[in-house]
Each structure stands twice: as C-alpha cells, then as structure tokens.
C-alpha cells in the first residue's frame, strides 16, 4: 500500500451510495459469473447448499477450532490478536460480510480467509479479499497491506498483497453490481462455459448448454 491516505479512502468518482445491500461474497460471484448476483438479488433465488458447500462449512469450523490453539507461525508473525467470524460492514460502501479471521496488530490489520482447497488463488477470490480489506480498514481504522488465504488441506497460509490497482478495480466491481441491480437486466453468462457444468444456477440459464 502506497500510504494510509492514498489507499484507505475512495478515489474521486468512486464513492458508492450509502445503502447496505451487497455482500462480500457477491464480489467473488460477480467476477466468476455476473448472473449469480442477478439470480440472488433480482430474482431472490437461493438453491439449497450442495454437499461440497456443507463439507466446506464443516472444515471451516474445524479449522477455526484448531486455530484458537495455534501460534501465528503459519503467517510468519510473532504478535497479533485474532478475531474470528468478524461481522463487518461499511455504509459508505454499501457492503457487508463475515470474515473467517482477522489478525489485529498495532499498525496493521490482516484479513484471513480459510479455503478448503489446494487450488491457486483465483481472481474472484482475490477481489473478495480486497473487499474484506476495505471493510477491515473501516472497522479498525488501520491499514490493510496484505491478506492471507489459509489452505485447509495443505495447512499452509499464502500471502496476498493488497495493491492500489486492486482496490480501484474492486470499487469498479461494486459500482457495476449496483448498476446491475438498478437495471434488473439479466447479464450475459460467463465466457468460460466450463464453469457452468457444476453451477447451482445452471437450470435457470436456458441459453447455456
């Protein structure tokens, strides 16, 4: 992060309406496929959780239980207070979410997401982390320069830097989602059609086979 002033606050022209309504998970889904956000917010569709989702939730709970007894060695830190299941919101961003863990240090705050996967960190997860960073800064009034993704299968943490460019793009994503919700128009499906194979909303997309 270049400086606390340049990165904590909105850039000109990027301030959002002071209306809570979007969730951090919407950022991840919007990058993955814009239609998922449309189905959730415009059509109020919420399919039942899949087996994979249920198992992922259980693994999160087991990891949190273990994390209470661990040191911060996995994150390369010697100090910091851990806050679990941090409920975050920012009215000026119109955004809220619950973060798996936050490490609060004297001069920084570090969001941590638990992931039940060994895959590399994809773009949709990256911008989800940036959205959490924006909320964490609002809550603790300290800079977020980095986040961690803790891979449950690998039992290892991967650091993700929070750059000014990623912050600006996340603001644009939030504005694009606001425009979608205001227009109520169904967006185009993702161009990466392999994502559709296991999508819980596939049966609603009659133009995708």
Q: Fill in the CATH topology.
A: Lambda Exonuclease, Chain A
Question: What percentage of residues falls in helices of 4 or more residues?
Answer: 25-40%
Percent strand equals 15-25%
Structural class: alpha/beta
SSE string: HEHHHEEEHEEH
Just give the CATH class. Answer: Alpha Beta
The structural domain count equals: 1
Weakly predicted, low-confidence segments: 1-19
User: Distance between termini?
Assistant: 43 Å
Radius of gyration, in Å, reads 17 Å
Most strands sheet: 6 strands, mixed
- Separate helix tally: 6
- On the 0 to 100 scale, the average pLDDT is 84
Brief account:
The chain is an alpha/beta fold and 209 residues long. Helix content is 37%, strand content 21%. Helix 2 (24-32) crosses helix 3 (34-41), helix 2 packs antiparallel against helix 5 (123-140) and helix 5 (123-140) packs across helix 6.
Description:
By secondary structure, the protein is an alpha/beta fold. It has a single domain, classed as Lambda Exonuclease, Chain A (Alpha-Beta Complex). Helix content is 37%, strand content 21%. The protein has helices spanning 4-8, 24-32, 34-41, 51-67, 123-140, 164-183; strands spanning 22-23, 81-90, 95-105, 108-115, 146-151, 156-161. Strand 2 (81-90) and strand 3 (95-105) form a beta hairpin.
């Amino acid at each position: 992060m270049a400086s606390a002033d340049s990165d904590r606050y909105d850039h000109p022209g990027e301030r959002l309406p002071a209306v809570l309504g979007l969730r951090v998970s919407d950022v991840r889904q919007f990058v993955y496929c814009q239609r998922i956000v449309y189905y959730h917010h415009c059509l109020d569709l919420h399919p039942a959780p899949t087996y994979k989702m249920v198992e992922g939730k259980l693994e999160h709970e087991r990891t949190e239980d273990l994390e209470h007894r661990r040191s911060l060695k996995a994150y390369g830190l010697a100090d910091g207070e851990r806050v679990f299941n941090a409920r975050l919101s920012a009215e000026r961003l119109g955004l809220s979410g619950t973060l798996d863990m936050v490490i609060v240090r004297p001069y920084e705050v570090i969001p941590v997401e638990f992931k039940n996967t060994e895959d590399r960190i994809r773009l949709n997860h990256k911008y989800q982390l940036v959205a959490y960073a924006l909320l964490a800064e609002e809550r603790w009034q300290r800079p977020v320069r980095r986040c961690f993704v803790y891979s449950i299968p690998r039992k290892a943490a991967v650091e993700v830097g929070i750059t000014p460019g990623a912050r600006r793009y996340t603001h644009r994503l939030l504005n694009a989602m606001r425009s979608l919700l205001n227009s109520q128009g169904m967006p185009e499906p993702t161009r990466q059609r392999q994502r559709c194979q296991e999508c819980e909303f596939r049966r609603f997309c009659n133009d995708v086979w």
